[in-house]
C-alpha cells in the first residue's frame, strides 16, 4: 500500500516547489478545509499535481508562507473542481492563479448529468474514486493515511480529466463560453458580509416581537465572538435551535436558563454566564431590529399575475424560450442565464424590446457577453410575443 506524506518541513517544501516549477503543462490544485469543525475557512491541506513533477500534499499551518509555491506555479493555468469554493481559501494563503479551468463548471456547460468530482472522473476516465472523507476535520494532526489517499486522488486525475473536457468543449463549440465563465469565477470579488447575518439563524421565524429578536441577535453575536476566539464552528458550541429555544423560553434568571431542556450544546452550560449576559444585553439594547426586512422591490413570481400582469406574461414567455435554448445547447438553464437575471429584466424591461436593448439590460445585471449574444434575441422576441397574447380574463367578468 502506498505511503502518503504531508510536507510540513521547509527544506522538503522548497524541493517540491522546485519540482513543480520544472513540471510541464497546467497544475491541478485542491484544498481541504475543516468546515463544520472550525470557525475559519482556512486551508489545512493544499494538494498540487503537475505532469513530470508528481503530486504533493502541503501543510499550510506548519509551513507558513506559501509564496514560493505561488512563484513556481502562479503563471500556469490551474485546474480546480468547483473553483469558487477553493479560491477564497487559496487567496488567504496568497495563492492566486492567473488563469483557471474549472472541471465542475465545464461539465455543467457540456451538459453532463453528474458534475461532482467523483462522477466527472468516472464519466471521463472510467475511474471510480472513493469519496469517504470529504466532510472530515482536516485540522486533525496527524492526518490518517486513508484521508491523505483521498486528498491526493482529488488532484491526481484532474489533468487527464482536463484533457477530455477540453476536447469536448471544442467539439461542442463551447471553448470561448467556458473561458468567459472561468474568468468570471476567477475574478469575482468575495461576497460582501451580510448586513444582518444573525437573521440566518435556523428557526428565527418562530421568534415574535422586536425585543425577542434583539435577544436572538445578542445571543448570536456572543456565540460568534466565542466561536471566532476558539476557532470552532459556532454550531458545535451551541446549535441554532438551542439559541432559539433560549429566546422562546424567556428565562428570568441564569438558573432558569440552565433549566431550559432544549438549550443544549457543549458550551451551553460551561459558558452559561456568557449566554445570560447576552440575553440581558439584548433585553436592554435600545436599537431594536425590525421584524420584517424590506426586500429588493421585486415580488416573488407567483404574485406577478396580480401585481404586474404584463411582467408576468413577459417572464413566462421568456422563461420558456430560454429553457428551450438551454436544452438545444445541452446545458442547464441556470448556466445559460440565471433565473434572477431573467426575472429582473422581465420586471423592469428596457424601453425598446429589441435584442440590443435587452442585451444592455442583461449586461447591467452581470450577464457575460456569450450569454447576452445567445439569449438577448430570444428574450426580445418573447417580450414582443407576450404583448400580443390576450390578457387573462378578470375573475369578475360575466
Compact summary:
This protein is α/β, with parallel strands linked by helices. Helices cover 53% and strands 7% of the residues.
Question: Topology of this structure?
Answer:
Layout: E1 6-7, H1 10-21, E2 24-32, E3 45-51, E4 54-58, H2 60-63, H3 67-73, E5 78-80, H4 83-92, E6 100-102, H5 103-109, H6 117-125, H7 145-156, H8 158-171, H9 175-187, H10 210-230, H11 234-237, H12 240-249, H13 254-258, H14 272-284, H15 304-307, H16 309-329, H17 333-336, H18 339-347, H19 355-364, H20 369-388
Parallel strand pairs: 1-4, 2-5, 5-6
Antiparallel strand pairs: 2-3, 3-4
Helix pairs in contact: 1-3, 5-8, 6-8, 10-12, 10-14, 16-18, 16-20, 19-20
What does this structure look like?
The chain has 398 residues and is an alpha/beta fold. The chain folds into three domains: 6-187, Ribonuclease H-like superfamily/Ribonuclease H (Nucleotidyltransferase, domain 5); 198-284, DNA polymerase, domain 1 (Orthogonal Bundle); 301-388, DNA polymerase, domain 1. Helices cover 53% and strands 7% of the residues. It contains 20 helices and six strands. A six-stranded mixed sheet has the order 1-4-3-2-5-6, sandwiched between helices. The radius of gyration is 26 Å and the shape is flat.
Q: Please outline the major beta sheet.
A: 6 strands, mixed
Structural class: alpha/beta
Q: Proportion of β residues?
A: 5-15%
Principal-axes shape call: flat
Radius of gyration (CA) equals: 26 Å
- Tally of contiguous helical segments: 20
CATH class of the largest domain: Alpha Beta
Mean pLDDT across all amino acids: 95
- CATH superfamily annotation of the largest domain: Ribonuclease H-like superfamily/Ribonuclease H
Q: Numbering strands along the chain, what is their spatial order in the largest sheet?
A: 1-4-3-2-5-6
CATH topology annotation of the largest domain: Nucleotidyltransferase, domain 5
Helix content: 40-55%
Amino acid at each position: 500500500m502506498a505511503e502518503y506524506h504531508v510536507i510540513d518541513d521547509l527544506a522538503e517544501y522548497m524541493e517540491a516547489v522546485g519540482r513543480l516549477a520544472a513540471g510541464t503543462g497546467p497544475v491541478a490544485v485542491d484544498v481541504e478545509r475543516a468546515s463544520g469543525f472550525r470557525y475559519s475557512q482556512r486551508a489545512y491541506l493544499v494538494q498540487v499535481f503537475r505532469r513530470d513533477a508528481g503530486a504533493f500534499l502541503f501543510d499550510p499551518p506548519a509551513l507558513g508562507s506559501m509564496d514560493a509555491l505561488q512563484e513556481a506555479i502562479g503563471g500556469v493555468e490551474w485546474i480546480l473542481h468547483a473553483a469558487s469554493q477553493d479560491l477564497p481559501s487559496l487567496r488567504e494563503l496568497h495563492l492566486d492563479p492567473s488563469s483557471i479551468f474549472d472541471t465542475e463548471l465545464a461539465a455543467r456547460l457540456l451538459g453532463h448529468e453528474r458534475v461532482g468530482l467523483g462522477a466527472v472522473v468516472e464519466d471521463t476516465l472510467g475511474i471510480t474514486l472513493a469519496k469517504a472523507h470529504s466532510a472530515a476535520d482536516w485540522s486533525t494532526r496527524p492526518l490518517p493515511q486513508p484521508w491523505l489517499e483521498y486528498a491526493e486522488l482529488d488532484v491526481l486525475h484532474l489533468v487527464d480529466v482536463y484533457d477530455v473536457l477540453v476536447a469536448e468543449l471544442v467539439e461542442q463549440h463551447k471553448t470561448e463560453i467556458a473561458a468567459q465563465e472561468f474568468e468570471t469565477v476567477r475574478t469575482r470579488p468575495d461576497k460582501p458580509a451580510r448586513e444582518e447575518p444573525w437573521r440566518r439563524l435556523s428557526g428565527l421565524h418562530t421568534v415574535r416581537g422586536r425585543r425577542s429578536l434583539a435577544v436572538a441577535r445578542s445571543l448570536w453575536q456572543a456565540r460568534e465572538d466565542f466561536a471566532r476566539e476558539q476557532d470552532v464552528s459556532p454550531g458545535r458550541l451551541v446549535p441554532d435551535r438551542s439559541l432559539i429555544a433560549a429566546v422562546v423560553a424567556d428565562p428570568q434568571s441564569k438558573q432558569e436558563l440552565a433549566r431550559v431542556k432544549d438549550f443544549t450544546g457543549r458550551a451551553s452550560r460551561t459558558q452559561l454566564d456568557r449566554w445570560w449576559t447576552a440575553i440581558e444585553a439584548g433585553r436592554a439594547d435600545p436599537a431594536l431590529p425590525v421584524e420584517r426586512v424590506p426586500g429588493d422591490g421585486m415580488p416573488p413570481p407567483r404574485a406577478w399575475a396580480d401585481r404586474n400582469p404584463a411582467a408576468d406574461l413577459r417572464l413566462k414567455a421568456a422563461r420558456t424560450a430560454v429553457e428551450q435554448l438551454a436544452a438545444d445547447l445541452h446545458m442547464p438553464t441556470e448556466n445559460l442565464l440565471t433565473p434572477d437575471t431573467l426575472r429582473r429584466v422581465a420586471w423592469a424591461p428596457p424601453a425598446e424590446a429589441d435584442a440590443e436593448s435587452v442585451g444592455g439590460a442583461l449586461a447591467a445585471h452581470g450577464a457575460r457577453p456569450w450569454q447576452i449574444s445567445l439569449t438577448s434575441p430570444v428574450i426580445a422576441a418573447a417580450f414582443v410575443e407576450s404583448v400580443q397574447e390576450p390578457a387573462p380574463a378578470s375573475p369578475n367578468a360575466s
